[in-house]
Design a protein that fits this description.
Number of strands: 7
Strand content: 5-15%
Bound molecules: iron/sulfur cluster
Distance between the termini: 27 Å
Order of helices and strands: EHEEHEHEHHHEEHHHHHHH
Shape: globular
Number of helices: 13
Strand order of the largest sheet: 1-7-6-5-4-2-3
Length: 324
């Protein structure tokens, strides 16, 4: 059961506050380590020294990969003890699907989900961070605009522009920054029985702050839904709108499969091919129904296919056609 929201007073340093909070969580739960993405494609990083937590930056507006697909291997490689795992909301959604698909036991994981301030395409991120002198400058800018829900959202990856669930809510621990004056405070909530929240926080959050975040999230979700509908409307004539047409499109892609290699869902089971080389329809349907909307497929497509909107659209059609 998730309890109420608590304050973390930031005193002008939201990133440092989160790092100190993670250290307190580590000690309170007795974690063996913390799992997070590395900056290299398809690699996880496991921090096993509490002193290294100061290097963590969950607010960087860059997503290289969705780490959910690599979690089964990391758990197998670390068979004992409890591990924290830092996730964006779309990574937590993917992890839930991975867990169901592989029936893995994630009880040893403490999921720490962070409100997502949106992410730029990697080349745009690089260009912007060069102009702002550093990647830290990008994080500072993202946090500065957290009360408004992010900056330059029209430059974000397509998946982020259409993301209807950027708020952290289903982690064992959730860190909230959207709509919040983060230079003063960050909100945190989580499972009641994890540890004493009173001891690890700066007291209960004000209702007005909690409401502010809810209002901003509702606005963001509405805006992102409108973007999704607008993009869909503009491309409806040319997009494959069902799995058969998508399979036709994959015929043109040859042996690429980069979208599947980057997808956490496919990393549990990639669609198989029939003897004629065409992907199996049921496998593709199973994949897309579990899609977490992270957009890593689109980010890795060498043909720049608008896969985020294609998969969102087909997923919606599939869900509507499933028996209730
Ligand atoms: S898809 Fe949503 S949760 Fe994922 S990076 Fe983009 S805004 Fe964040
Ligand atoms: S299909 Fe694309 S958007 Fe969906 S989970 Fe896989 S990589 Fe993410
Ligand atoms: S990554 Fe792009 S080109 Fe490659 S298989 Fe997927 S859709 Fe086709």
């Amino acid at each position: 059961m998730i309890n109420k929201q608590w304050n973390l007073e930031t005193k002008g340093d939201p990133l440092g506050t989160v790092n100190s909070f993670l250290q307190a969580v580590w000690n309170a739960i007795g974690l063996q380590g913390l799992i997070l993405p590395s900056m290299a494609q398809n690699k996880l990083r496991v921090i096993d020294k509490i002193s290294d937590l100061h290097e963590i930056n969950p607010f960087q507006p860059l997503m290289i990969m969705n780490i959910a697909g690599l979690v089964p291997k990391v758990l197998a490689d670390h068979p004992d003890g409890r591990y924290g795992i830092l996730l964006r909301p779309c990574e937590l959604r993917a992890l839930n699907e991975v867990e169901k698909r592989l029936k893995i036991d994630t009880n040893r994981l403490v999921t720490i989900c962070v409100d997502c301030l949106g992410t730029f395409p990697d080349d745009d991120f690089q260009w912007r961070s060069d102009r702002k002198d550093s990647e830290d400058g990008m994080t500072k800018e993202a946090l500065q605009f957290a009360p408004q829900g992010g900056i330059a959202a029209y430059r974000f990856r397509a998946a982020c522009q259409m993301c209807t669930a950027p708020g952290a809510s289903n982690g064992d621990i959730n860190l909230s920054v959207l709509g919040i004056p983060v230079r003063q405070v960050i909100l945190v909530n989580g499972k009641q029985d994890l540890f004493g929240w009173v001891n690890i926080s700066d007291g209960p959050a004000e209702t007005s702050l909690v409401n502010k975040r809810e209002v901003l999230l509702a606005k963001m979700i509405e805006r992102h839904s409108q973007t999704r509908d607008r993009v869909l409307h503009g491309l409806i004539e040319v997009l494959p709108d069902d799995v058969d047409k998508l399979l036709d499109q994959f015929e043109d892609c040859g042996n690429c499969q980069d979208c599947m290699k980057a997808c956490p869902i496919c990393q549990t089971k990639a669609p198989r091919r029939n003897s004629d080389g065409r992907f199996q329809k049921q496998d593709v349907m199973d994949w897309l129904v579990d899609c977490a909307g992270c957009g890593m497929c689109e980010q890795n497509c060498p043909r720049h296919m608008p896969l985020s909107i294609i998969f969102t659209h087909i997923k919606k059609n599939l869900e509507e056609s499933l028996p209730v």
